[in-house]
Amino acid sequence: MQKYKFLLIGLGFFWIAAWSIFGSILAVLIQQMTISQIPSSEFMQIQRALLKSAHAHMNVMGYSAILLGLSLNFIAPYFSKRLIKSNILTFLFSIPIFGAGLILEAFNPNEIGKISYPTAISAIGGGLYILSLFLWSGLFLYRFFKKNGNYE
Prior knowledge:
Blueprint: H1 2-36, H2 41-75, H3 81-107, H4 117-147
Helix pairs in contact: 1-2, 2-3, 3-4
């Protein structure tokens, strides 16, 4: 389990650093596009908000990966390795899926009455991410009640 702890912490810091740099580059590109290429200020405002949202979400996901890595040793002795590994894999796959969907959504907005593919991609990634966090939370709550004798 120790190797998964380091994997989660390492990937968490990687996500924070990578998405921070990506957010900075996006801000510069959007400013250049606003000045030179795109006439519609409304579309640019929406696109900018979506890209800022993607940047903030990916930073939060990076922090949560660090927290999962740091908390791994606390619950590893109480649950099967298979359960923990499957939760970690679900968590790790959900982050890039969600991020890619958010970024694509900024450049491919939904049409009225239709859901775009990028929106569906980000919904799948976000759903898996939330599911894995709820499971992680449930494992800790189960351990808390079991350890204190209040469970059952």
